[in-house]
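I can't quite decide. Please look over this sequence plus structure tokens:

:::
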Amino acid sequence: MPHIRAAGYQTKSVRQVAVAAAVAASTLLGGCAGAVSDLMPQMLAAKPKPAPIAEVATNSQSELEKATEYWGRKFMSSPNDLKTALNYARNLKAMGQKKQALGVLQQAGVYHGQNRELASEYGRLALDLGQVSVAKPLLAFADDASKPDWRVISARGTVLAKEGAYKESIPYFERAMALSNSNPGVMNNLAMAYALAGEPDRSEKLLRTALNKGAPAKSRQNLALVLGLQGRYDEATAMGRRDLAPQVAQADTNMVRQIVRLDPKVAPVPAGGVWQPPQLVADRAAKSPSNIASAAPAAARPQLRNSAEPSPITGGWNSHVAIATQR
């Protein structure tokens, strides 16, 4: 693993922990890092000029509300109809009502446990809400080798990264990037995986490419972090100031300087509130998904049952069906 140039006297292993603590707290871009209409609006190439508030309220928002109400009524009358459930959940998600959308997908799973499209929606939304252990088996089932979906593949990489398996996540992000024509959001997550695996040089190159493709401000902040991890503090501060107040950008750079030089257990929290090394070090040391906080109540854990036996010719794995169980 490459040596981070910033820390002059620490051992390589301690430095790797410090780097992981810093980078892990700069979040991956969204649960599935790629569904432009799903969990990753930040991947849009350019943000349009915002419409006046009144226009949004009377036009797009009202149309979305009407669509949500329409599918809600349909869902109430036909809760076992898959198309209705998916459309209702997607509209709820677009309205920002992700917990309610998750509940709709949970209920649909009772009737359509063998549907990969449903497993994809359910798994990616659960991941977006921080419910990694729920998302993992759903995404594994949704990942269809005959019809690869880069959103699902990228989401599986995000699951591994959140579990601390940074190197193992890299092939998933690389494949998703190839399938998505180098989507900048996927590229950002691949860059963060490389940074977490101790390769900040590769991370920097990917982040710069992602920014050239229109990645959001979060990617620029990640680049500032990676520059700081390489000891290029002036560049890191300048990059941070493009989106943050000067004093916040400087404080964050100073934080990175301390992280790569000090035991991360005693490193303070930066003024920008971007990193939280002590807790993250504990989480990464344990490498346990249970340490990841969730903003939403725990979703129903999928109950798995075998739906197919492995082929003796291909040696393939059992496919599983995700059945949502109500608590």
Q: What stands out?
A: Strands lie at 302-306, 320-324. The mean pLDDT is 74. DSSP finds 15 helices and two strands in the chain.
